[in-house]
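Sample A.
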Amino acid sequence: MIVWRKLGILGLVIPVGLAMSLQLLFGSLPLLAAIGYLIGAIPVWLLGKKWNDAIDQQNQMNLDQGRIMKHSLFWIHLEYWAWIFGLVGFTILLDSTVLPMGIDSQLSIWGIGILLVIAYQIYKGRNRIASLISKEVEPQAEAAGKSSTIPLTFKPSKQEGNERERILRNYKTEDHRKYMPKPSEDNANSLGMP
């Protein structure tokens, strides 16, 4: 089962599709697969970086709304799949040309690479949260008596709170029948009533 969010499936489709296309067109050589993975990693990096940075900016601007989820495949952001497929292409290229290493060594290298990418993504995410928390109140603005950040919750002043209570009080005691249609004599006569 493949799990992806938004356009995260492109992290798999572009490099694998390019590698398979090169092999179908020019013959089944591991070198062509390696070139396909390496070339396919470039658009995955560019698209993932562009789209996920735009989502980051939207999330920073809309603090009061829910967070927009990023493009990801197997919970790894799209731009990081470029590094994974770049590593896959590089190891296949080494295996087919310079240093024959076998499939077991390649799988070990790929597994270590995926673990490093996941660790970096977790570190970057936690680091971003820590920086947002530390930047929430800047000391210069606090010393000047002004807050430079947008408040996360709305706290009405006493005057606004009193206005809200007055509206709710009037709403609860208001006679809502005045908004209903009134029966007229024409309607009563058409129904056969005297």
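Sample B.
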Amino acid sequence: MLIDSEGTKIGVVPINVALEKAEEAGLDLVEISPTAKPPVCKIINYGKYKFELEKKAKESKKNQQIVKLKEIRLQPKIEKHDYEFKLQHVKDFLEEGDKVKITIRFRGRQMAHTYLGEEVLLKFEEDLKEFGTVEKKPGIEGKSMSMIIVPSLKKK
């Protein structure tokens, strides 16, 4: 099955006739669908065809948005100013469109009072409601407790 450069179907022709037609047009004979019965071939400029495919791939890659995961570390006993400072950093990250992982590290006897860390994380969640939503609720992993916040979709 042969298709010419304008896209009109010529019909089923022998391979040597198809090659002659492609040579007359000064273009390439490209097999589009080898598994079809009969195989489908098209007369096109192969270099231009590859260039167009690469151009489309680049364009689709350009439109992708890369989401980074930023991490903020703190202690369960955090002062008000330090909390506000870290909160502002988290807000900035969320406004840029990045995910934020807030981690609280427990040392020594602090492991007996993990509820203090959970209170700090829940306070972060409450203060960041308008900037993002919680993707992963606070949970303990070894000697640290963390949660992940993703930016709100209101930005666009």
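B remarks: The longest strand covers residues 132-141. Residues 69-155 form a domain with the Translation Initiation Factor IF3 fold (CATH 3.30.110.10).
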